[in-house]
Design a protein that fits this description.
By secondary structure, the protein is mostly helical. It has one domain. Helix content is 67%, strand content 0%. It has 3 helices and no strands. Helix 1 packs antiparallel against helix 2.
Length: 69
């Protein structure tokens, strides 16, 4: 897959906002809107992995652990 642009990412975010009220747990997985929601979600996930990676997840887990104490 080619790199996802910021415009594609922003489009996917906006489209997800439109689709979320129309898709729920009872929507069949082969429904057109459910498929599109999955595809748009994949675009957002891949973009965020590339441009907003979670660094040093171990220290994040430790900080969350301390906050819960």
């Amino acid at each position: 897959m080619s790199k996802i642009t910021k415009d594609q990412y922003e489009f996917a975010l906006a489209r997800i906002e439109e689709l979320l009220p129309q898709v729920n747990e009872s929507t069949p997985s082969n429904d057109r809107k459910a498929i599109e929601l999955t595809m748009m979600s994949d675009v957002v996930i891949n973009y965020e992995k590339e441009y907003f990676p979670i660094r040093n997840a171990g220290s994040l887990k430790f900080k969350l652990y301390l906050c819960r104490r």
